């Protein structure tokens, strides 16, 4: 196309755009059009409603309850009654209003400060459970607003709550069956509901909410372990934040949902799975009496014909490792519930140490009928014996470094601070000749750390410590406050725990002994002060922790001090120095080890780079 054709197209486009802009309706005209359209829709909807009312009047007059609840009008009114299921471990109270569990009590446990009443996981106003029903005439109802009727049942520890309909041969049953432990079978069983509910129903919406009451003395610590957890079909365990309000939309199928406290959980387990699930976790106020509020909105499969009941299980009980793990005994791997993951045992390697060493050892000693304080003492001794070789290697390395201090001081005098690389090279050469590996004092600590962390995770979460006393501490699962004050000290709080204080004092003593036995640079006074500051920091960190954990660290530190004193008596610095001097003569003229050679090569490369950088800087000047 030539130039004139292009100009013509542009003029035509400009005319079209200009005409569209000029002829567009004003805001007032758009508003008038919308008003007319809304009026037409309103007239159409009123006509439909009027026709429906006329048809209903012709057929049969309806009461307000029938208008609102349809076939469930009979269940819309009634009197709330309770049904009790009970075994040796717990007592459940079922309510005919909503057909739900409104109260769950654990007979073997008590809330902190209450030695009489059984521990209550939740009460009527602290929990809600509802299913959404859509009737055949499109009424949307919640089971929480309907009254169920108890049905006589000959089987012990089984209850049937029936939701009646306008048809005498159609109903929906909530069936509860209590086992001999903490598990409750719960199923939805329909009978001839095809004509009472919407025909296209193949699932029901489920809403479950629960407030978690504060059960322990230490709220701060209880909040740390209270969280909403759930397991996906396939075995992955997910959780919401324990420290802040959190929510999650889960598109994958969910096997179970756990509302967890520090030591107790309420878990809803689906025989099939939950789908399209939304979770919420909300932190409650400090003085509310509650730790968290959890809420779930999800869907569950439902068979209108009643041929396939919708099955669940409720776990309402303690976070006891063996109790939870027993539910997977004899179960195929793909069907295991993995409820034992409700007990936090630390990271993967730490969890492995807990399950392979700490828990079996704890079970062994408690199985002997020993006092819990003796059990922790024996566990500490066994752990100390296990890591003793690593501790000895670390101490011996420090002793060798101390024996070589005069020679290291001589190297420091020979090479001033501005020749740091030469100083380091000479120091490493001295270590190589004397047969000292500077890393040998650090590596053993890496082997000890996972074991120490295993105890750090195990003791605060071991429900076996809950309510167990030792000396002045009435409950080893929480802090043992011996001093209280009415105000809050930052980081410390409103109390002082005695086991924590004793642990801090013992730690300071151990630091003093260690500093006296190690070779330290007099120019590094700040590091010396930091070594004493660390134990004081532990006072603030562990003041709110379980007394059982502070007791373990106290005993562990005391044994460590005894070990250090024994090592000092058995290792002679002069004898070690003589051995290192003899080692020097043996290694004279021998090739250096691979590690030392690589280290020396690295130092030489650093020196070369430093010289080149210095030359480049001189040229720029």
Counting DSSP H or I runs of 4 or more residues, the number of helices is 15
Calculate Rg over CA atoms: 37 Å
> How many separate domains?
3
Major sheet description? 14 strands, antiparallel
How would you sum up this structure, described in words?
It is a single chain. The protein is α+β, with helices and mostly antiparallel strands and 621 residues long. The chain has three domains: 71-344, Beta-galactosidase, Chain A, domain 5 (Distorted Sandwich); 361-582, no CATH class; 591-620. It has 15 helices and 20 strands. It has helices at 3-23, 27-59, 64-69, 219-225, 321-325, 348-367, 372-403, 405-414, 420-434, 443-461, 498-517, 525-542, 547-570, 573-587, 594-620; strands at 82-86, 90-95, 101-106, 119-122, 127-134, 140-142, 149-151, 158-164, 171-178, 183-191, 203-213, 227-232, 237-239, 246-250, 254-260, 264-283, 290-301, 310-318, 481-489, 493-497. The strands form three sheets. Strands 5, 6, 7, 8, 9, 10, 11, 12, 13, 14, 15, 16, 17 and 18 form a 14-stranded antiparallel beta sheet that branches. A four-stranded antiparallel beta sheet has the order 1-2-3-4, with no helix packed on it. Helix 7 (372-403) packs antiparallel against helix 10, helix 7 runs parallel beside helix 13 and helix 11 (498-517) runs parallel beside helix 13. The longest helix has 33 residues, at 27-59. The protein is elongated and about 105 Å long. Mean pLDDT is 82; it is low at 39-49 and 55-60.
